């Protein structure tokens, strides 16, 4: 499909999720079932098929990892400064987190896979895994430190290790390293499953978006959108273009880090004392705006692969 068709497809599925929730078709239980299907089946299949036959020296590069960490840490620092005047620590903690914590799995990797080739998708899978390893403890640390909540980062990291996406990433890289042949039937089946990652993710995100704008600090929402959707991909473009000579590394890094705020940040905000309403509105706002900015990136900024 063309970029315009891809964008229309994404908007249609996102709208279907919103409509399904409004009409009572996409109930919380059904949305949870779709989330589980994406999280435990489609995304792991996509990660494995993207990495198992790629040379490690091609997809795991110092410039890829350095670029990822530089962008994430710089954005966390910028968010800490920009949101210092938020109306409460609950709001500030959420705003900081949602200025860098992107939807790498449900949006980023499927979009990269649908747009670019195998090498770029494999590198995006590495960003997904290492990004999660960086984002999750950093997000918990910020929320806990600003909201005086008790939490065990060790327990959260233990849960992270059991994450099916991480397990599939390790499995794919291990197969690539050892060179174990995978039966064609198995790879074909996993390939079919991986194609459902983006449609399911868009339905789930649409079904989870909240439109309750009562008592919302729109200046904070605007700041989060400006940082996450506009500044972060611009910074990623500068950083990856400086550190990497490979177009696939630049493409994977910029597109993945241009994704909207992750839906999971709402869950973390709820768990660790953040402003839940602000978290929900930020997810909605960054998701809607990023559909346009990602389209611009894919069509006019990112070079052909």
TrEMBL record:
It is a multi-pass membrane protein. Its main location: membrane. One of its GO terms (cellular component) is plasma membrane. The keyword Transport applies. The keyword DNA damage does not apply. It comes from Natronoarchaeum philippinense. It holds the Pfam family Mem_trans. This is Malonate transporter. Belongs to the auxin efflux carrier (TC 2.A.69) family. The chain crosses the membrane at residues 6-26, 33-52, 64-82, 94-116, 122-144, 165-182, 188-209, 221-244, 250-269, 281-302. InterPro entries: Mem_transp_PIN-like, Na+/solute_symporter_sf. Keywords: Cell membrane, Membrane, Transmembrane, Transmembrane helix, Transport. GO terms for biological process: transmembrane transport.
